[in-house]
Amino acid sequence: MSSDLERAVGLIRTVPDYPSAGVLFRDITPLLADAAAFTAVVGAMAEPVSGCDVVVGIEARGFLLGAAVAYAAGIGVVPARRLGKLPAVAASREYQLEYGTAILELPAQTLSPGARVFIVDDVLATGGTMAASCELVEQVGAVVSGIGVLIELVALGGRQRLDGYFVHALLSY
């Protein structure tokens, strides 16, 4: 691991009981603010994106990472948004979070049938958000070529919900 990636790991803060009691929130904002650490993370996350047509970044921190990864890979980026944030919706999916439920939507006229999609988010926890994102991509006829996350919380078992998908996690806790 490069020294910039090692420093990036040290910049991630763990915030207990946020957004609700019992949740250990991984705050990546100090990492995002550090140019060298952010550049190293984006470069490492972009490595498996080769051959994809577009990145889907999951709201909200997945937007930041997804856009940077797409830029590094030379491809476009599409946001997967929370309910009610898009003027035109191609597909929507309700899913379970470790602390409630949510709905994700894909914007209309952004993913073509057969498009090879790499989905990016900051954290893979229980896998609900990522599984819903995969279902959204497939619902519009595109193909999930891979999944990239900055952090995988291994004990929460999210990877098991993504059986059959290539999952690239930069860091595991």
Could you please describe the fold and organization of this structure?
With 173 residues, the protein is an alpha/beta fold. It has one domain: Rossmann fold (3-Layer(aba) Sandwich). The protein is built from 5 helices and 9 strands; from the N terminus they run αββααβαββββαββ. It has a 7-stranded mixed beta sheet, sandwiched between helices. Strands 1-2 form a two-stranded antiparallel sheet. Helix 1 packs across helix 3 and helix 3 packs across helix 4. It is globular, with a radius of gyration of 15 Å. The two termini are 16 Å apart. The model has no long low-confidence stretch (mean pLDDT 95).
Low-confidence stretches: none
Order of helices and strands: HEEHHEHEEEEHEE
* Total domain units: 1
* CATH level 1 name: Alpha Beta
First CA to last CA: what distance? Answer: 16 Å
Query: What proportion of the residues form beta strands (DSSP E)?
Result: 35-45%
> Which secondary-structure class do the elements indicate?
alpha/beta
Classify the fold: give the CATH topology: Rossmann fold
Radius of gyration: 15 Å
Could you say which overall geometry the principal axes of the C-alpha atoms support?
globular
Largest sheet: spatial strand order: 5-6-4-3-7-8-9
**CATH architecture field:** 3-Layer(aba) Sandwich
Mean pLDDT: 95
Q: Quick one: biggest sheet?
A: 7 strands, mixed
How many individual helices? 5
Strand and helix layout:
Layout: H1 3-11, E1 13-16, E2 24-27, H2 29-33, H3 35-46, E3 54-58, H4 61-73, E4 76-82, E5 89-97, E6 100-107, E7 116-124, H5 128-139, E8 143-152, E9 167-172
Parallel strand pairs: 3-4, 3-7, 7-8, 8-9
Antiparallel strand pairs: 1-2, 4-6, 5-6
Helix pairs in contact: 1-3, 3-4
